[in-house]
Amino acid sequence: QVQLVESGGGLVQAGGSLRLSCAASGRTASRYDMGWFRQAPGKERDFVAAITWSGSSTYYAGSVKGRFTVSRDNAKNTVYLQMNALKPEDTGVYYCAAEGRFGVFSYSDIRTYDYWGQGTQVTVSS
Q1: What is the pLDDT of residues 29-58, one digit of tens each?
Q2: CA angle in degrees (0–180, nearest 5) for 62-85-52
Q3: How would residue 101 be classed by pLDDT, with cut points 50, 70 and 90?
Q4: Residue 93 to residues 19, 37, 56, 105, Cα–Cα distance (Å)
Q5: Which of 62, 67, 71, 96 has the fewest CB atoms found within 10 Å of its own CB?
Q6: How would you write the chain as a 3-class SS string?
């Protein structure tokens, strides 16, 4: 069992930056592949970024590549999402998620993930 708590959201102007954190609790939390998703009002929850448990591989949605960076500190059981050059279309609730199964990591598939945080709101004003 893993519990996830996101933080770091807020209101920022276009072009600004935010860093989201996702703190994971659980004895084996550091062994989970992690993902970030976001959901805008009235829309589906979409993949943003993901990182393998070791941190050796990272993945990004095309819309955020080059602007967002996912990283993790397994000693702190925390995953980060550094968001730069924010745009109004980045607005939404950001969720972190954990996946602990063996096999292929289908990082962009929402069904891959077993545990979800409660989300943190990011609002980018124009």
Answers
A1: 778 999 999 999 999 999 999 999 999 999
A2: 50
A3: confident
A4: 14, 8, 27, 23
A5: 62
A6: CCEEEEECCEEEECCCCEEEEEEEECCCHHHCEEEEEEECCCCCEEEEEEECCCCCCEEECCCCCCCEEEEEECCCCEEEEEECCCCHHHCEEEEEEEECCCCCCCCCCHHHCCEECCCEEEEEEC
pLDDT at 59 over 90: yes
Q: Are 32 and 96 in contact (CB under 8 A)?
A: no
Show the tokens assigned to 54. 């070791």
Residue with the two structure tokens 């943003």 = 48
User: Is 69's pLDDT higher than 80?
Assistant: yes
